[in-house]
């Protein structure tokens, strides 16, 4: 990443983000509890609107989540017990306040194209949690 610029996002990129779950927002929180990996579901470049899906990494899949195959998790640097929540997503304007930069920029890795297509199809009816 060059100083003064931001990374060009692509669908399937993995970011470090403070994700706000729907139940946290319903309880009155305006920020998530912790930093976690998220997957870029959609990135509309002209408007800088981004949709991200939460990744759980502790082996306790949440309702509405899909396990990430071990070979995919290994290839993109995620825990082998990771799952992607496909029932909801956070929507925000890039770059958002909840992005946590890394030493090399904002992008942690990227899912394989096949698994990215699978979770995008499964998340087609996901509910947004607006972050702006």
Mean pLDDT: 90
Strand content: 25-35%
Q: Given the C-alpha coordinates, what overall shape results?
A: globular
Describe the sheet with the most strands.
Answer: 8 strands, mixed
Cα-to-Cα separation, first versus last residue:
24 Å
* CATH architecture classification name: Roll
How many strand elements?
A: 8
Oligomer: single chain
CATH class: Mainly Beta
CATH topology: SH3 type barrels
Report on the architecture of this protein.
With 132 residues, the protein is an alpha+beta fold. The protein has one domain: SH3 type barrels. It is 17% helix and 33% strand. Strands 1, 2, 3, 4, 5, 6, 7 and 8 form an 8-stranded mixed beta sheet that branches. The radius of gyration is 14 Å and the shape is globular. The N terminus is likely disordered.
Short description:
With 132 residues, the chain is an alpha+beta fold.
Write the layout of secondary structure elements.
Blueprint: E1 13-18, H1 22-26, E2 35-44, E3 49-56, E4 65-67, H2 70-76, E5 83-85, E6 88-93, E7 107-110, H3 113-122, E8 127-130
Parallel strand pairs: 6-8
Antiparallel strand pairs: 1-2, 1-7, 2-3, 3-5, 3-6, 4-5
Note the main attributes of this structure:
132 residues; alpha+beta; SH3 type barrels; 8-stranded mixed beta sheet; 3 helices; 8 strands; globular
């Amino acid at each position: 990443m060059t100083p003064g610029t931001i990374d060009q996002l692509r669908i399937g990129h993995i970011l470090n983000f403070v994700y706000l779950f729907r139940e946290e927002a319903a309880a009155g929180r305006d920020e998530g509890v912790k930093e976690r990996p998220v997957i870029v579901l959609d990135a509309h470049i002209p408007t800088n609107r981004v949709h991200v899906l939460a990744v759980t990494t502790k082996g306790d899949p949440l309702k509405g989540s899909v396990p990430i195959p071990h070979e995919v998790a290994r290839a993109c640097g995620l825990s082998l017990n990771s799952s992607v929540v496909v029932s909801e997503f956070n929507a925000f304007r890039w770059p958002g306040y909840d992005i946590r930069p890394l030493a090399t920029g904002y992008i942690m890795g990227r899912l394989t194209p096949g698994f990215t297509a699978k979770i995008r199809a499964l998340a087609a009816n996901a509910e947004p949690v607006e972050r702006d």
